[in-house]
């Protein structure tokens, strides 16, 4: 009996972990596409998949393969470094 309980606990833990990663992929795919400001069709064309596939990913019906996820992540726009305040190159510069 303890073995079956252990197996069930392991199965439950695995199911929870898969659900979390599945929903994380779903949100990440949608976020990448929306950050780019493009339609599902345009996003699908960039990845070489169908629009229906992108729709299924975003709806959580299916998950992208590892290669598809890597390709999607490469499309992310790089974050810009924070802008620095412009300061004079020389302390006396600008003083008259």
From TrEMBL:
<dbReference type="Pfam" id="PF01381">
    <property type="entry name" value="HTH_3"/>
</dbReference>
<feature type="domain" description="HTH cro/C1-type">
    <location>
        <begin position="29"/>
        <end position="65"/>
    </location>
</feature>
<dbReference type="InterPro" id="IPR010982">
    <property type="entry name" value="Lambda_DNA-bd_dom_sf"/>
</dbReference>
<feature type="region of interest" description="Disordered">
    <location>
        <begin position="72"/>
        <end position="96"/>
    </location>
</feature>
<protein>
    <submittedName>
        <fullName>Helix-turn-helix domain-containing protein</fullName>
    </submittedName>
</protein>
<dbReference type="InterPro" id="IPR001387">
    <property type="entry name" value="Cro/C1-type_HTH"/>
</dbReference>
<feature type="compositionally biased region" description="Basic residues">
    <location>
        <begin position="74"/>
        <end position="87"/>
    </location>
</feature>
